Amino acid sequence: MLVKASFIGLIKTVLILIGVLVVVRIIGRTLIAKRNLDKERELMAQERDLLRKKEFVKRNEGKTSIVGKQKISAEDTDFEELN
Known about the structure:
By secondary structure, the protein is an all-alpha fold. It has one helix and no strands.
């Protein structure tokens, strides 16, 4: 059996391959852009948190505060002198 390749079939195959490569390239670039955007948002959130913490420290510098109102289990002992 002898198979003949037609010029039109060759052109169609080449165009299909080019189309597939273009679509894959567009999808790849879209995914890269999405990843970069997510990374940028994460960095912006970290920067906002850092600025918020710096502002809190600047505002409360030199102030004393009691941390928490939880019960602490402590034993009250008397003073003993050692000889």
